[in-house]
Amino acid sequence: MPIRAWFPTHIYCEPLQKSGRARFNADLADECRRLRDFDAAGRRWSAKNYPGGYTSYASMNELHRFSSTFAELEKKFTRHVRAFARTLDMDLRGRSIRLTDLWVNIMPPTAAHSLHLHPLSFISGTYYVTTPRDCPGLKFEDPRLSKFMAAPPKLPDARRENKIHVTYPAEAGNVILFESWLRHEVAANRTTAERISVSFNFNWA
Ligand SMILES: [Fe+2]
After folding, report:
1. Phi, psi at residue 135, to the nearest 5°?
2. Ligand 1 centroid vs 138 CA: distance in angstroms?
3. Rounded to the nearest whole angstrom, what is the distance from the C-alpha of residue 170 to the centroid of ligand 1?
4. Which is deepest, 2, 36, 89, 203, by most CB within 10 Å?
5. What tens digit of pLDDT does each residue of 37-79 get?
6. How much distance in Å is there from the Cα of 3 to the middle of ligand 1?
């Protein structure tokens, strides 16, 4: 082939575990809602920075250190992150990886999460706990967008690898991983129910 694709952007999407997801997520959703009730500082921060929604990102972002439920999630996430890092050919021989932040996001109807990335980490991800039918997915942006300059627009039916955005559906029980520099957003929740997810960052040393 005279033309080959180089420098791909990888996104990982897998079920967190093989079985027991419904029960696990029901318990986890309860714990996320209890956290929101308990976390007054987080509710105040969210009122200013996450309109309509709740996130513990700025108040309780090391949940794995304080709750056995989230510590269990840390173990499960670590296995997935190792698998993803292997796919990326990251050289972690003699190095360790560590979950640094883990926080809860609750998006009631109308809440949205604007375009952002996750600084100071190398792999980030989200686990879906409660995903009402037709709730918004996770939309990623081509990281080269700022370099396209004079490029013409892409065809509506452009091949997958040539698209400039991709949206992964939010499906309860799935974990999505991406390199932390990859910008992403969540559109407004237009359903009538809460969408609940747990997000996290990993670093290496
Ligand atoms: Fe994010």
Report:
1. -70, 160
2. 9
3. 13
4. 36
5. 999 999 999 999 999 999 999 999 999 999 999 999 999 999 9
6. 33
